[in-house]
């Protein structure tokens, strides 16, 4: 899929996006020069540790970064010909929930406890489509049934506390997809769910992506989830993209030292009983990133020049970008 | 819902028994009785005093006997006669409880009517000039003593003549007024005391409303609502307000109680013929039947206020079911 899609025009293009948070302690450069494309029909996973800027990237696309303290300092988010960052708030509201929708990490708290499920879904339709209330309700129930909620007629009149966690996430997905968006941003959609429910939700997202011909931007820290659903992967570290590749490519030939370290820290059946390899050190403080390459303080192959030059994304292989000039030599040595 | 209401009504009975019993204990424990002041009078003989005390069952210190005398009367529907006024306590309380309710409702309308919109505005425009002004206003409202504020308002009324300085209605022309004129006249008299009482509560509710609204606006479901492309107005009023107002409804039950008991000073300064003054006067001279009946009424109204709050809460929040 990704190979054909890559040839076409991207659905969404992010160019040199910078979102900073101005706190009393200083400026947190949470997203600092991020660029990538999402092509029609693909699932693009953004992977990284907590605080690497993956969620902030998603919120910036949605225009939901709280201002202040957040501020988009620069860059472009192109949806077709429109730069979302230049749209007035009213026009952006027409995009949200209509062209681009979002599913959040916490289904437990992401639904309004005092409104019925049906009402919360149909208000999205009523906001964006020219339909009657009765029609909106019918569409909501249809959507609930499509995401696998049994007896949707009854569930539509229930409140969130009457649904289980998995059901809530299904309802969230129904809410996000009811206006048939072209892009769904799923921010850690399965993190809060238990493992059996996780794979059901991922399967559902995959099925719906094909059925609705939409793209999915999947934000996750879970490489297992990535392997299951992604077509392409972006690896983020400390507010920057450090690697971008097709999913098979990335799993077989991880290029960046950070990506390799991530894979080494995964538990695997082959190395049962051995201690897991952790990445030494901590995620750098976003108020005070290291100079040059931001991973150098934890990198096994760091050299003196890493402190002075900002590594650019270079094509290590076709459609495989790595932000490390030394990735080809000996990063896997240990 | 029905069983809930029934249970709550049944719960009033032991509550009233407990409250009145404690009141009786306190009345006996404090020195003197209604006739203590009369004993100073030269025309009062010790025999006469003893006769009166026996007649009104004040001749024993035994709480249970005294309480039983009162309770047995109440069980037959007789709350007794006021020592001072020598009329049935209900004829005294009847009008006054309505006046107090009127003052309480007026104060509630003013305090909630201002507190909720101002609180929402402050939360949405956090740290703006509007927020700071509202914060300053609530600071004044919280710190100003109600006696001083009441007197200030009386002074204002006296100097400008825009409002009456006190009373429930016009003393001279009342009997010649049409019902509509009477209504307007009472509202006109109500305005200042209700403003004083309302301002004091308003400050607190506004701070609370602001804090709840700020808290609610940071919730995940508000982000979900925004992600649907809803306008700020819809997010605020459909998604946030119903959640934010929840703790304030609980406060409403308490505020009602406060207004019933705490209005004494305002009632006194504005010569408002309400329960507060009647009860405090009765307590000072130890007019026992009147004290007991007032306590019963205030208890009932307090429970009613809390019940109303519970019902409102269940109406707003589907997670609360009254069973």
Describe it:
The complex is a heterodimer of chains A (334) and B (323). Chain A has 334 residues and is α/β, with parallel strands linked by helices. Chain A folds into 2 domains: 240 residues, Rossmann fold (3-Layer(aba) Sandwich); 72 residues, no CATH class. Helices cover 33% and strands 23% of the residues of chain A. The longest helix of chain A has 18 residues. The two termini of chain A are 34 Å apart. The N terminus and C terminus of chain A are likely disordered. Chain B has 323 residues and is mostly helical. Chain B has 2 domains: 74 residues, no CATH class; 227 residues, MetI-like fold (Orthogonal Bundle), CATH 1.10.3720.10. The interface between A and B is medium-sized, with 30 and 21 residues.
Assign an overall shape of chain B.
globular
Termini separation of chain B: 6 Å
Mass-distribution shape of chain A: globular
Topology, number of strands of chain A: 12
Q: Rg of chain A to the nearest angstrom?
A: 21 Å
Question: Segments of chain A where pLDDT lies below 50 for 5+ residues?
Answer: 1-6, 330-334
> What is the percent of helical residues of chain A?
25-40%
Global Rg of chain B: 24 Å
Number of helices of chain B: 13
Strand order of the largest sheet of chain A: 6-7-8-3-9-10-12-11
Task: Report the sheet-strand fraction of chain A.
Answer: 15-25%
CATH fold-level topology of the largest domain in chain B: MetI-like fold
CATH first level of the largest domain in chain B: which class? Mainly Alpha
CATH architecture of the largest domain in chain B: Orthogonal Bundle
SSE blueprint:
The complex is a heterodimer of chains A (about 325) and B (about 325).
Chain A: H1 2-7, E1 12-23, E2 26-38, E3 43-47, H2 54-62, E4 70-79, E5 82-83, H3 89-95, E6 100-103, H4 107-110, H5 117-128, H6 133-146, H7 152-156, H8 165-177, E7 183-187, H9 195-212, E8 215-220, H10 223-229, E9 232-237, E10 240-246, H11 247-252, H12 257-264, E11 314-317, E12 320-322
Helix pairs in contact in A: 5-6, 5-8, 6-8, 8-9
Chain B: H1 2-29, H2 46-55, H3 63-75, H4 89-124, H5 129-143, H6 146-160, H7 179-217, H8 220-227, H9 232-244, H10 246-262, H11 264-269, H12 275-285, H13 288-316
Helix pairs in contact in B: 1-13, 4-5, 4-7, 4-10, 4-13, 5-7, 6-7, 7-9, 7-10, 8-9, 10-13, 12-13
């Amino acid at each position: 899929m990704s190979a054909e899609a890559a040839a076409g025009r991207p659905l969404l293009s992010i160019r040199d996006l910078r979102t900073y948070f101005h706190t009393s302690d200083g400026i947190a450069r949470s997203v600092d020069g991020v660029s990538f494309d999402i092509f029609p029909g693909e699932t693009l996973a953004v992977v990284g540790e907590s605080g690497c800027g993956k969620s902030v990237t998603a919120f910036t696309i949605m225009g939901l970064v709280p201002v202040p303290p957040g501020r988009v300092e620069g860059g472009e988010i192109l949806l077709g010909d429109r730069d979302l960052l230049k749209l007035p708030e009213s026009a952006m509201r027409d995009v949200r929930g209509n062209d681009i929708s979002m599913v959040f990490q916490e289904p437990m708290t992401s639904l309004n406890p005092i409104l019925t499920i049906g009402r919360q879904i149909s208000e999205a339709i009523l906001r964006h489509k020219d339909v009657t209330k009765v029609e909106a309700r019918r569409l909501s129930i249809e959507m609930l049934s499509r995401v696998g909620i049994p007896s949707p007629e009854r569930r539509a009149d229930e409140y969130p506390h009457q649904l289980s966690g998995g059901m809530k996430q299904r309802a969230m997905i129904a809410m996000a997809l009811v206006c048939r968006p072209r892009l769904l941003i799923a921010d850690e959609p399965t993190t809060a769910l238990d493992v059996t429910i996780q794979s059901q939700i991922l399967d559902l997202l995959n099925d719906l992506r094909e059925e609705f011909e939409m793209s999915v931007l999947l934000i996750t820290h879970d490489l297992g989830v990535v392997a299951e659903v992604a077509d392409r992967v972006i690896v983020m570290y400390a507010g920057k993209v450090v690697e971008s590749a097709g999913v098979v490519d990335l799993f077989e030939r991880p290029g960046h030292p950070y990506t390799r370290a991530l894979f080494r820290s995964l538990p695997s059946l082959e190395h049962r009983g051995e201690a897991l390899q952790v990445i030494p050190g901590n995620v750098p403080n976003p108020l005070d990133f290291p100079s040059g390459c931001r991973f150098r303080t934890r990198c096994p192959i760091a050299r003196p020049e890493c402190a002075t030059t900002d590594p650019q994304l270079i094509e290590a292989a076709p459609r495989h970008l790595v932000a490390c000039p030394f990735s080809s030599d000996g990063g896997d040595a240990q | 819902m029905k069983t809930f209401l029934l249970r709550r009504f049944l719960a009033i009975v032991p509550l009233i028994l407990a409250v009145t019993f404690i009141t009786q204990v306190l009345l006996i424990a404090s020195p003197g009785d209604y006739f203590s002041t009369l004993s100073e009078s030269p025309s009062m003989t010790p025999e006469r005093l003893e006769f009166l005390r026996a007649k009104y069952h004040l001749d024993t210190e035994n709480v249970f006997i005294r309480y039983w005398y009162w309770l047995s009367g109440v069980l037959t529907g007789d709350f007794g006669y006021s020592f001072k006024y020598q009329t049935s306590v209900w004829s005294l309380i009847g009008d006054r409880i309505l006046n107090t309710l009127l003052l309480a409702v007026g104060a509630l309308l003013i305090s909630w009517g201002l507190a909720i919109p101002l609180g929402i505005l402050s939360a949405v425009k956090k740290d703006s000039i509007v927020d700071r002004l509202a914060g300053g206003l609530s600071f004044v409202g919280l710190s100003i003593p109600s006696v001083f504020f009441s007197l200030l308002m009386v002074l204002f009324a006296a100097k400008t003549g825009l409002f009456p300085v006190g009373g429930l209605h016009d003393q001279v022309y009342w009997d010649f007024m049409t019902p509509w004129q009477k209504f307007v006249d009472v509202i006109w008299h109500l305005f200042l005391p209700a403003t004083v009482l309302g301002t004091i509560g308003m400050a607190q509710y506004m701070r609370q409303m602001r804090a709840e609204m700020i808290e609610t606006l940071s919730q995940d479901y508000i982000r979900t609502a925004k992600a649907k492309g809803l306008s700020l107005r819809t997010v605020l009023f459909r998604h946030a307000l119903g959640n934010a107002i929840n703790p304030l409804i609980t406060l409403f039950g308490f505020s009602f109680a406060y207004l019933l008991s705490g209005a004494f000073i305002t009632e006194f300064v504005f010569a408002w013929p309400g329960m507060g003054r009647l009860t405090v006067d009765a307590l000072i001279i130890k007019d026992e039947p009147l004290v007991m009946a007032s306590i019963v009424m205030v208890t009932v109204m307090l429970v009613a206020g809390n019940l109303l709050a519970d019902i409102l809460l269940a109406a707003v929040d589907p997670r609360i079911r009254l069973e």
